[in-house]
Write a structure and sequence with these properties.
- Helices cover 22% and strands 24% of the residues.
- With 463 residues, it is α+β, with helices and mostly antiparallel strands.
- Strands 13, 16, 19, 20, 21, 22 and 23 form a 7-stranded mixed beta sheet that branches.
- The N and C termini lie far apart (64 Å).
């Protein structure tokens, strides 16, 4: 029996993912929950487990292809009695949906043999066809002149397709077709769609390319944009994590009224405490950094200044105050900026917080951060000091009221006990949403964090 596996929704209603690599080949025998592919969503790289035990018969998509949720990506040959795996045997992040029990007096429904992962994948309608989620795009801010740049080749002018930019009047097509058009420099607005309701198909693009000089010019323009040896420009498609980050930052910057305050602090006592803790038995196998102690200071300061741990709910016209802290930590990765968060960080000891930070960093660097760890944050920290930067104006993570930037720790002349001494100094930069946080509240929070880092013993007066 041949079974198709459709690309699941890997978190928060994402509409598409890119196939990064296949871990299996046609003819391979796979077991239940064996990793068969690595895909990249708009937020993270995710390993995709097999929903069946069987033999791979067809890989429908190639690496590098952007695939819509609900589209078949692989076919298996399985035993005739093979069905969805029991929920208890599913991968930890991709459980299977148990069949619903019929009510008393009802006829039992015909069993569905197609696996449907919890929260992942298109919902199966009564017709048996997967229901497509509507596409929801973040707002895009464009200049007043919205005409696309023009690329000239030979005697033909080809308008460059604006890859990845959603528009209300954009020609209807699928991501693979848009990629094909992008690779060959074809503006889909010039292509006549022959699919249902005018949908532009792969064949439509190929036919356009076959139309003499226009097609040749488009292909030449596409090769120039690829940036071969000796080219003066290289163009990289905006997709995956970077595309999501860009949309989120634009939305945040133009939605929440940002205010940024700065405080420069003598953190010599904190650096001395850090050296002592590194030599303590309880922290012998842990990586302790200034970020560890700064994160703990933030958690303590949030107890005294809860307005910075809240969210503006525009739809319901409410302020949501969180009684827990999911602490986001900005992480620079090869695929772009991500902000995974430590769940319930407020309840962790310093030792547990150090462990969580180390795990978060390792996972982010390897690109294995789970989608669930990238959502639900309540406040964030970005450590720009590791790049030698002293201060900045960080942009809020969408849905959060505040973000704190930690600057570099520098040895500087500083007033100390009435004299000038060489001390270790750090600048803190706090951005907050002025709809939620008044200037006084933001200032008190920043002062509390600074007081703790300037004299860790001050914690005794705050808790």
């Amino acid at each position: 029996m041949i079974k198709e596996f459709r690309l699941p929704d890997l978190g928060e209603g994402l509409t598409e993912s890119e196939i990064l690599s296949w871990k299996v080949a046609v003819g391979d025998t796979v077991s239940l929950n064996q990793v068969i592919a690595e895909v990249e969503t708009a937020k993270a790289v995710v390993e995709l487990p097999s929903p069946f035990a069987g033999v791979i018969r067809e890989l429908h998509e190639q690496p590098g292809t952007v695939v819509e949720v609900g589209k078949p990506i692989v076919s298996f040959e399985v035993a005739d009695d093979a069905g969805p795996a029991p929920a208890g045997h599913a991968a930890p992040s991709l459980g299977l949906v148990p069949a619903a029990r019929p009510a008393a007096g009802e006829e039992p429904a015909a069993p569905k043999r197609e696996p449907n992962l919890v929260g992942y994948g298109a919902v199966v309608e009564s017709s048996g066809r997967p229901a497509r989620r509507p596409r929801i795009f973040a707002p895009v801010v464009e200049p007043a002149d919205t005409e696309s740049p023009v690329v000239e080749a030979a005697d033909t002018t080809v308008i460059e397709a604006r890859a990845g930019v959603p528009s209300g009047d954009r020609p209807r097509s699928t991501p693979p077709v848009r990629k094909l058009a992008r690779d060959h420099g074809v503006d889909l607005a010039l292509v006549t769609g022959t699919g249902p309701a005018g949908l532009i198909t792969r064949e439509d693009v190929q036919e356009f390319l076959r139309q003499g000089s226009a097609g040749q010019a488009a292909a030449a323009a596409g090769q120039a944009r690829a940036g071969g040896e000796g080219e003066r420009e290289t163009r990289t498609p905006i997709k995956g994590v970077r595309k999501h980050t860009a949309a989120a930052m634009v939305s945040s910057a133009f939605t929440a009224p940002h205010v940024t305050e700065f405080l420069t602090v003598d953190v010599t006592p904190t650096m001395e405490l850090l050296a002592k803790l590194r030599g303590a038995r309880a922290f012998a196998n842990l990586k302790l950094t200034p970020l560890t102690l700064a994160a703990k200071a933030v958690l303590i300061a949030l107890r005294r200044n809860p307005s910075l741990n809240s969210r503006w709910d525009e739809a319901n016209q409410e302020i949501v105050s969180f009684n827990y802290v999911n602490l986001g930590i900005a992480a620079a990765t090869p695929r772009g900026l991500t902000v995974p968060n430590i769940k319930d960080a407020h309840s962790l000891t310093l030792e547990q917080l150090a462990e969580a930070l180390a795990l978060l960093a390792d996972t982010a660097r390897s690109g294995k951060t789970a989608p669930a760890d990238l959502s639900g944050g309540t406040m964030s920290i970005t450590n720009i000091g590791v790049f030698g930067i002293d201060a900045g104006t960080p942009i809020l993570n969408p849905g959060e009221a505040a973000i704190l930037a930690l600057g570099a720790v520098r040895s500087m002349p500083w007033e100390y006990r009435g004299e000038v001494a060489l001390r270790q100094v750090m600048t803190l930069s706090l951005s907050f949403d002025h709809r939620l946080v008044d200037g006084e509240q933001g200032s008190r929070f920043l002062a509390d964090v600074g007081a703790i880092l300037a004299e860790p013993g001050m914690v005794l007066t705050m808790v």
